[in-house]
Design goal:
Blueprint: H1 4-18, E1 23-28, H2 40-45, E2 50-56, E3 59-64, E4 67-72, E5 78-83, E6 92-98, E7 102-107, E8 114-118, H3 142-149, H4 156-160, H5 171-181, H6 194-213, H7 231-234, E9 254-258, E10 261-265
Antiparallel strand pairs: 1-6, 2-3, 3-4, 4-8, 5-7, 6-7, 9-10
Bound molecules: zinc ion.
Length: about 270
């Protein structure tokens, strides 16, 4: 599933190809995505010039002078820049053709993705307006983490994966960040010290920033796919490394299930 780093990688990949370009045609081949695509968005953006390629949480924001297309990649979606003459393959659902002769092509086998249009500022859209802070943004820091953990006895790993508190910290990044901060995933959130909250906030940012830098962990198809898709995996400390030696201390990495997700950690390095 595309996680926040993959979506940010996609945003960076499409940005130089779309900004300043006019949308010459928008084709919706399949309306039945997670929510039906409103056919009126075709007329709304045809002829509009793209001003910015933005992102909020895992939503890509294609901002035009007529309004904003809000695209979510869902479980299996990808967005690529290809020549507008490229033949369609199965699951190519939406084409956004540009005056450059290229197009943005949205492919999504499982159709959990979505596409909306708003003429209003995108941050006021119902999907976006209640979102928690961005982990890579300034509002998310040790003080924020300290405040939101005080009265919560849930395990810290589950807290940082709660998208109502911070968006986009997926399972891989939660395990990795807790390892970097040397905090056990099962610790009660409210028992973290202020210093640990600072370390964890920095570890989350560092883990996600590293993943963005190498092009995400799981996504194969994005424009200019020069980032090696497996590269971040080689840098993982604990995720999917159960039984293998910890890269820091050499003791075997442990695994257990937490909230129906696999958690990986080192009993020696994390306290
Ligand atoms: Zn270790």
């Amino acid at each position: 599933m595309p996680e926040l780093p993959e979506v940010e990688t996609t945003r960076r990949g499409i940005e130089p190809h779309v900004v300043g370009r006019r949308i010459s045609r928008l084709l919706v081949h399949e309306r039945r995505l997670r929510w039906p695509v409103d056919p009126r968005l075709v007329a709304a953006v045809t002829g509009a010039v793209i001003r910015r390629a933005g992102r909020r949480a895992k939503y890509l924001l294609i901002e035009t002078d007529a309004g904003t297309l809000i695209l979510h990649l869902g479980m299996s979606g990808s967005l690529r820049v290809v020549p507008a003459t490229t033949p369609r393959i199965p699951h190519d659902h939406v084409d956004i053709e540009l005056d450059s002769g290229q197009m943005l092509r949205f492919n999504d086998p499982r159709r959990f993705g979505s596409l909306f249009f708003t003429a209003d500022p995108p941050e006021t859209h119902p999907l976006l307006k209640k979102l928690a802070p961005e982990p890579l943004g300034p509002a998310f820091d040790g003080e924020y983490l300290w405040k939101i953990t005080r009265r919560r006895s849930v395990a810290i790993k589950q807290l940082i994966m709660n998208s109502q508190l911070v968006v986009g910290v997926g399972n891989i990044y939660a395990s990795e960040a807790l390892f970097r901060a040397r905090i056990r995933p099962r610790r009660q959130a409210r028992k973290l010290t202020r210093t640990e909250c600072g370390k964890l906030a920095r570890a989350i940012k560092a883990t996600l920033a590293m993943a963005v830098k190498v092009g995400g962990t799981t996504l194969r198809d994005y424009v200019g796919a020069d980032g090696n898709p497996g590269y971040f995996r080689q840098k993982l400390y604990v995720y999917e490394r159960a039984g293998k030696p910890c890269r820091v201390c050499g003791n075997p990495v442990k695994q257990f299930t937490q909230g129906q997700r696999s958690t990986y950690w080192c009993a020696h390095c994390q306290t």
